[in-house]
Amino acid sequence: MGSEMGRQRLKERLREVRTELILNVAEEVFEERGYHETTMDEIAARCGVAKGTLYQHFPGGKDELITALFERHLEQFARAVAQAQSAASTARGRLRRILEYVYLERSGLHARLLQLLTYGGDLRQALKERLGPRLEPISAAIRAILEQGQRNGEFRDTLSTDLLLQTFMHLLLFNKYQPVLEREQLSPESLVAQVAQIFFDGIASETSGEERI
After folding, report:
1. Across residues 184-199, what is the average pLDDT?
2. Which band of pLDDT confidence, cut at 50, 70 and 90, is reported for residue 172?
3. pLDDT for residue 7 is more than 90
4. Is 11 exposed, middle or buried (0-12, 13-18, 19+ CB in 10 A)?
5. Residues in CB range of 99: below 8 A, 6 or more apart
6. Neighbours of 5 (CB within 10 A)
7. Whole-angstrom Cα distance, residue 29 to residue 142?
8. Lowest-confidence region among 15-24, 37-46, 125-134
9. Is 155 left (phi over 0), alpha (psi -120 to 50) or beta?
10. C-alpha 121: how far from its chain's center?
11. How far apart are CA 200 and CA 167, in angstroms?
12. Is the dihedral of CA 69, 74, 75, 80 positive or negative?
């Protein structure tokens, strides 16, 4: 029985490794060819597996692959937000760390995946329905940071926290700023600095002595 359990665990582990390989390759192909031009045949060929094997892992085809990439990205983003929330820093410093994660560390993937939300309604609606609940704890963590900033005098407490949250969440849509990077020839670091200045200086309390980070 122990030998059978060992074989089963090995089989499960091999499946996990292959799934991760498929996701990594799919991400590369989507980046190179775009969503519509990408085919399951090409992904299977690059992975070195039969297309039938690919469908065993992702029966829903391209849409399921895209959803899985979004899920993986959200898990990583959720960890980054949690780390920022627990960091020994000001509210402004914690939010700045989140901006840096999106713009510097995950800018490429973040931008490419968000571009897919501009495609047809079926894919966009499916992603919203499946992934929407996963955004709620992320949103709640960012809201808690904003509320802390309002309580300690960093941010104006006369401003709607809901409005601050929605504004900050929109700042995380990196793909919206991609044309600015190209047109103005800005570095991602410069973009972070300028976006942070616009947001934080606009909501800073008039009595706040917070050092600009």
Report:
1. 86
2. confident
3. no
4. exposed
5. 171, 172, 192, 195, 196
6. 9
7. 33
8. 125-134
9. beta
10. 20
11. 11
12. positive
> Is 54 exposed, middle or buried, given 0-12, 13-18 or 19+ CB atoms closer than 10 A?
buried
Q: Read off the tokens for 151.
A: 């309580």
Distance CA 90, CA 56 (A): 47
Task: Annotate 127-192 with DSSP letters as a single string.
Answer: HHHHHHHHHHHHHHHHHHHHHHHHHTTSB-TTS-HHHHHHHHHHHT-GGGGHHHHHHHT--HHHHH
Q: Please answer whether residues 145 and 165 qualify as being in contact, where contact means their C-beta atoms are separated by less than 8 angstroms.
A: no
Answer positive or negative: Cα dihedral of 197, 179, 162, 85: negative
Q: What is the pTM of this model?
A: 0.77
The yes-or-no verdict on residue 166 having pLDDT over 80 is yes
pLDDT at site 98: 92
